[in-house]
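Service request form, structural biology core

Requester: graduate student, group of Dr. S.
Request type: structure prediction, single chain
Budget code: on file
Notes: please return the result as structure tokens.

Sequence provided:
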Amino acid sequence: MKTVWPFSEAANTATFVSKHLFSGDPICYAYHDWHDCSWQFLPNRVTQQSDAMLVCLEEVYKLDTSIGELADLPPGWMAKREGPTLPWSRAKNHPYPVFADHGFYLDDATEYERLYPDIYQIPNEEDRKNLRVGDLVKLIFRFADEWSPRKDNECERMWVEVLAADEEELNYQGKLLNTPRLHSAIGEGHELWFHPIHVFAFERAEDQLA
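Core staff response, request fulfilled:
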């Protein structure tokens, strides 16, 4: 039976690994990065720069198909395990809200456009990466567990004012300008961090004064 490719990324997606994985070390750490959504797979040892290799995601999957269990790991999350036959534990590796800690998380707006291009057109990547203090952004808040099946009335689109921009880490701090209609986990004035992939729409500060 042909194995079904579990990742949404293409099989030839460039992936960072340690050379020790191809010498017999098991994969014990996996990272799905925020900035470019790339993957990293590492063994349970200190990884030096000289150990790094760039290979296709498919090569790592052939090496250990159990990484397919992490195909739904969101960008900005990591997973680890003590050995190749033990279960993975997941944890966030970013400053953005997660349901377990905050009662909501932010949807990836780029997925809406990818899945429904005839319905949704989000701002271009350059604009989303160059927001300024005072700009307004519309984010999609989902009040449900990241991995739970989707249901009606879980998501609300709300406006957030940009308070600060961290150019080095490419993320933003913002303040919620609305109160959710259907959920009570947060309210107007709530502050949070978000990433360019979360931006569903935006308005420049100077346009608000026109």
